[in-house]
Amino acid sequence: MMTMHYLDHNATSPLRPSARAAMLAALEAGGNASSVHGPGRTARAAIDRARDSVARLAGSDASAVTFTSGGSEANCLALKGAIAGALAAEDRITRLFVSAIEHESVRAAAAALAETVPGLKLSTIPATNDGLLDLNAFRLQLMQGKGRALISVMAANNETGVVQDLAGLSRILDTDGGEGVLLHVDAVQATGRIALSFAGLGADYLTISAHKLGGPQGAGALFISDDAPLAPLIHGGGQESGRRAGTENVASIAGFGAAASDAAILGDVARWAALRDRFEAELLHLAPDTVIFGKRVSRLPNTSNFAIPGLSAETALIALDLDGVAISSGSACSSGKVKPSHVLAAMGVDEGLARCGLRVSFGWSSREEDIDALIAGLRRLMARRSAIAA
User: Fold this and answer.
1) Residue 206's beta-bridge partner residues?
2) 5-14+266-389 carries CATH number 3.30.450.20
3) Staple partner for 230: which of 85, 178, 273, 365, CB 3.0–4.6 Å?
4) Which amino acids are annotated catalytic?
């Protein structure tokens, strides 16, 4: 059986052994966390431990954590919940700012809100050629309008790995944001890869996801500050302090907590950076005309987004998969389709080059041998392409 060299941790990181063990223990214990008997108390204790671990990962109190089914739900809860909650408190949000490089869950939720909420204006924050938010353009956008604003931005981009200047953004909000401005940060890719503090960011909402950390798919969390407005998307019982009804997914939450505990150590960061730098050096030696997106600015240590001109992403993905190497192109949330990246388009990348965009992302299980296999696969692919051209 062919060994698979997995280099797509930004899509999903394989389940950590600690997370698997925590999930199995929760499944064996059973029990509904809302029940008062012994099995119910055991389930509740597992959730409480996980909540503490997830909170520590983002430098927050456990009371701020609301568990969800994943990053997409948490993003939707932040945007839709904030706007509905502010409306209920008679302090309407009339302006919504979303950057051009956001995850599709944010972009789609923002578009839906703009269509359905009367008086809500949606503005797109442009990006620079390096993949950073254009903060000067955003300042002008913010100053041109009136009314309470909600801003949703990534801590680090899922495709390019570019780390955003959230401190610079916060200074603008403090100076020019007006009364009651709210900030949502999508930290799904950044968490566990760079140091983050929910309180330190000055954010009102922060999203993270378990399966990017080596936890299970189907678990995420939204951090909510004490005074931030929020209305639930799911109504029913009083779970998650009334912020999200429904019986808790105890096993996935327990696995999330275990993965968060491991990820909080940040011990792999230097190793990921070394793997990425080695890969990019060998890639440029193999194909000197390679374009590495975001290379001139701060990036996540585990992410490399690049294009070899003339080598389509679709061709490369298929060939590498046959060689036992798993990488990706664009976002994983695209229904399995290989299509031009809206992130690269927002960065001003030519469509032809964008169609060649590929992403390599490292994680807790990555090894030197994975790079060996990837470079070997690319070398064979380039040789076949050269032979055909000849």
Assistant:
1) 185, 223
2) no
3) 85
4) 333
Are 237 and 245 spatial neighbours (Cβ–Cβ below 8 Å)?
yes
Report field, pTM of the whole predicted structure over 0.85:
yes
Tally the C-alpha atoms within 13 A of residue 266's C-alpha that lie toward its C-beta. 12
**Can you list the positions of beta strands (E) in 299-372?**
303-307, 325-326, 357-361
Pairing of strands 93-99, 5-6: unpaired
Using one digit for the tens of pLDDT, what is the confidence trace for 74-129?
Answer: 999 999 999 999 999 999 999 999 999 999 999 999 999 999 999 999 999 999 99
Residue spans per domain, the chain: 5-14+266-389, 17-263
**pLDDT, tens only, 128-164:** 999 999 999 999 999 998 899 999 999 999 999 999 9
CA pair distance 245, 113, nearest whole angstrom? 22
Decide: helix, strand or coil at residue 129: coil
Cβ count within 10 A of residue 383? 10
Cβ atoms of 234 and 242 within 8 Å: the answer is no
Q: What are phi and psi of 8, to 5 degrees?
A: -135, 45
